[in-house]
Specification:
This protein is α+β, with helices and mostly antiparallel strands and 180 residues long. The chain has helices at 10-16, 19-27, 34-41, 45-57, 102-118, 141-159, and strands spanning 2-7, 61-69, 72-79, 81-86. The protein is built from six helices and four strands; from the N terminus they run E-H-H-H-H-E-E-E-H-H. Strand 2 and strand 3 (72-79) form a beta hairpin. Helix 2 crosses helix 4 (45-57) and helix 3 (34-41) packs across helix 4.
Length: 180
């Protein structure tokens, strides 16, 4: 099971955006039959089977085994990931975006999601995430942004060689939204 699946096809999103189907998918965190899921959700096995088939068709769940129960073959199904991220591209870009627009941050966040979802998560991967808050007086904004740009450019120059493991750096700087 993968950590993350990135959904960028409308049919996948439509399949996932049904509350009852999400509940079925949650029950498939471990391999289960439709009958077992139906019991937990107080549904009929036929109704759960319909939802499971839709999840399988969309690539959100898969049949992992089969067993014989009272002379009948019964499938065991499991979700293919622990998390499902929906791409903002499913809605599409509305208007233009430049590097200073907040929409550019949405594009950056989506690129991070795509990259993280594509990583092989079978082993620990070296990474770092940092988040913090910096307070800058309006008269110091230009100096702050200049120092930030210089610091990052220094890192890119120092470690930007052609050898070694490649790391992507994404930095988002945006107003917090309140003045606390």
């Amino acid at each position: 099971m993968r950590d993350v699946i990135y959904l960028d096809r409308m049919e996948q999103a439509e399949t996932l955006l049904k509350p009852q189907r999400v509940e079925v998918l949650r029950q498939l965190a471990a391999p289960r039959s439709c009958t077992e899921v139906a019991e937990v959700l107080d549904q009929t096995p036929q109704r759960v089977h319909y939802h499971v088939k839709q999840l399988v068709k969309a690539g959100l769940a898969t049949q992992v085994a089969e067993r014989k129960v009272r002379g009948v073959q019964e499938g065991l199904y499991q979700a293919v990931a622990r998390s499902y991220w929906l791409s903002p591209r499913l809605v599409g870009r509305i208007g233009s975006r430049d590097e200073l627009a907040l929409g550019h941050l949405v594009d950056l966040a989506e690129q991070i999601q795509v990259d993280v979802a594509a990583l092989n998560r079978d082993s620990e991967l070296p990474s770092v995430g940092v988040s913090g808050e910096i307070r800058v007086r309006p008269e110091d904004r230009a100096q702050f942004l200049s120092e930030l740009q210089t610091t990052l450019q220094d890192l890119f120059t120092r470690y930007g060689g052609a050898e070694g493991d490649a790391f992507r750096i994404a930095l988002a700087c945006y107003p917090k939204g309140d003045n606390r």
